[in-house]
Fold each of these.
Amino acid sequence: MADKKRLSVVLIARNEAGLLAECLESVSWADEIILLDSGSEDGTLDVARGFGAKVFANTDWPGFGKQRQLAQSHATGDYILMIDADERVSPELRQSVENVLHNPPENTVYSLGRSNLFLGKFMRHSGWYPDRVNRLYPANFRYNDDLVHESLMTKDANVVPLQGDLLHLTCRDFFAFQRKQLSYAEAWAIQRHQQGRRCSFFSVISHTLGAFVKTWILRAGFLDGKQGLILAGVNAQYTFNKYAALWALSHQLQK
């Protein structure tokens, strides 16, 4: 029987002291924990060190994709589990991960189903469940360079879904959530603009309406009740901000 593969849990964080302890407790069974900090001014580093994490810093923010690459470069494990401070590994998911480490097949990455909290409710529809993300993978894989909404470059690998939820405390504070959404929209628009992407005013409107319909109807957001309706509006607002910002950047360039 092959030796169990070593697991490195990798995080990037900034000012996450209030969330970090529960996150790290849920992965305390890993072989090592790597935390790359981007300039915390609270107790984030103390919390991380209290759980035995190896702490590094990079305050010259390069975007989410490259920051994750840098964080992973400090890991020594055979496999990487990439998580965020507002996520927790459930007991069932832990068991699934440990099963993989005992006998992993070649060229395979693993998707984790996220259960997302929105205004006090873990959503079960609206496109927010199971919200699969590729987060467990051999250390020779890495994230792309995207400034925001970065993703793992899976190449030609097999992608296998794991059992068990990754609990994601997505929206605990509505105002903080909205501020984060706005910053994501700005980063998205800037990156697309730099890539030469443009959009028409009609695209701003059509994408906004499409986001609401997709969330509320096509993804059965109505089954999530009041939270589903609010989320459909939030998704529409976020989409509007993205495409309106991209349109505005193009419009400003023409003046």
Amino acid sequence: MSGALRIAILGAESTGKTELARALAAQLAARTGMRCTWVGEWLRDWCEREGRTPRADEQAAIARTQQAHIDAAAAAHDIVVCDTTAVMTAVYSELIFGDRSLAAYAAVEQRRCDLTLLTALDLPWVADGLQRDGPHVREPVDAGLRALLAAHGLRWTRIAGSGRARVEAALDAAMALVSVPPGRPEGTERPKGPEGAPEWPGGQRTK
């Protein structure tokens, strides 16, 4: 594997991104013996620090900081699981502020990811302080994510199910890209794949 394998987890609020990122990184480390880590969502830390949600003019810095954290993790690990990327900031910027200026930057950064997992809207919505606006925004965010990824020809795999099934679906998609180093054999029992085939914008599999 040349450089760190980057796995991005995108999805609307309360679709299990953080829990999935943690679990997937742990499972990949156990399965491969490689240096694996996960990068949390900078927006969450930002909101806790500032005690509010960001303004329109603060969105770009949040997106770039998220990517800087991912780059730093990639420099020191073999596999990095990203709990959101700049794409999420771009989608929310358009949805909340009508600002599409971050889309091009977010797409360029997303293209550096080897795998993009899009979490399904099949988990119950749970309140989480300043970060979550309500269940009514989940479908518009999901649609915005699909639209941005499709517009830039970025491939993605949908991850559904709950608990272990959700993690195994993500693990199956990730392990398809991992070359396990000699002497570190992959576990003999492969997890079952997600229900249905991976989804690709417009039927295209071009990254």
Amino acid sequence: MRLNRRAFALTLVATLATAPAAWASGPQVGKPAPGFSAVDTAGKPVTLSDYAGKTVVLEWTNHDCPFVRKHYGAHAMQALQKTWTGRGVVWLTVISSAPGEQGAIDGAEADRLTSERGAAPTAVLLDPAGTVGRAYDAKTTPHMFIVSGDGTLLYQGGIDDKPSADVADLKTAKNYVDAALTEIAAGKPVTVKTSRPYGCTVKYSS
């Protein structure tokens, strides 16, 4: 019995040690972020290289996802966007929902939502084929990435440490994106480089 318990404990430790690989797959922090080309809501091509020299935030979104509604309904996401775009950060909101899936919208509807919610991204990118999302292995909405001016991935993961759809949790949440951007702006290394993303699964085409 004692041996079985020891084997179980070792198995559990191994499982917990390897669990992060499941959510930290895809591009690796400290290495070049995947280049991409997508179109914005006006049909204009946008590439990561367009923003060379600037810090870039990538935010995967789905307006019907309750986790996304938590951040936008409380105006927390909008406040974060306004704070950092006002300091020269590029904020790209990405919609990778496939046509017919939850969260799939066209450019006009995306613009309406941006205006209606008072959002302030630099641009909203439409990725119905999921090309950009799969390149980044974006798993949830929201799923956040920060890219340095030289194209290095500096952060990937959840927006904060409260994986719930409860607006009340925003009051005590540690916002990893805000913390990372603050450190980057101060010329400091990012303390929390990866975290577990949470939210609705990205609705890719099958």
